[in-house]
Specification:
Pyruvate dehydrogenase complex repressor, 80% helix, DNA binding, DNA-binding transcription factor activity, single chain, mainly alpha, 258 residues, DNA-binding, 10 helices, transcription regulation, Four Helix Bundle (Hemerythrin (Met), subunit A), two-stranded antiparallel ribbon
Amino acid sequence: MKVSVQTAEALLLMIEAQNLPIGARLPAERALCQALQVSRAALREAIGQLIGLGVLESRAGSGTFVRQPLAVTMFRASQASIETTAIKDDHVAKDDDADPLYRLDVYEARLVLEAGTAWYAAQRATPADIEHIRAAYDLLADYQRQGNTEQAALADAQFHLAIAQASHNLVLLELMHNLFERLQRNVVTARRKIYTQTYEFDKLHAQHSAILAHVSDGEPQAAREAICEHIGFVNQQITDIELQQARTQRVSRLGILL
């Protein structure tokens, strides 16, 4: 594991251990280097990673501040996803090309797994769990407003992972971690195809809001139905867009032949 990633984890643990609230200023760079026993280069790279994830923010002339909380488990999952994707991206693309129905398999897996995690999260989520889910939800909205599709996709996947974490079922959480790479890829695909449309984004934003509300209010049946509706909607939209693209390409080919 890279030193900067280890340093980022240590920073997250420090924020959690000291219960630093949103808006709290981190200690000075020299103090952090001494406390974490790392170089300034490693610290700065780690802070940059957390700023990129929306956990921290840098204010010119003032320092670095806590922007949103993030569980270490979620950070580790995101790093594992990024590293695995970098190694396997070509292989995954070949698998998807060889089996066009693979995306539907991911959809069905998400539907079965996330219906369960939402059900249990609505019954077992602690106030801290709700805050983690809400933080991912707020971060997703922020990145969407900025037009940062890649970071929005990561925040979207983290939103779903935070719900799994709130289920307090270790097996379900382990399965979600294993699915995280595919989940993030699935979300990126969806965003590239439908999230660029403001009207569709408003629908998706409302669906995420409903899921958050039902989990927060302790409504397991409603939470399960909301997440199934959301995943089903995303899948149908992608299917419709891919069908339209296939028709357009077919007409284009026919035009060339004619």
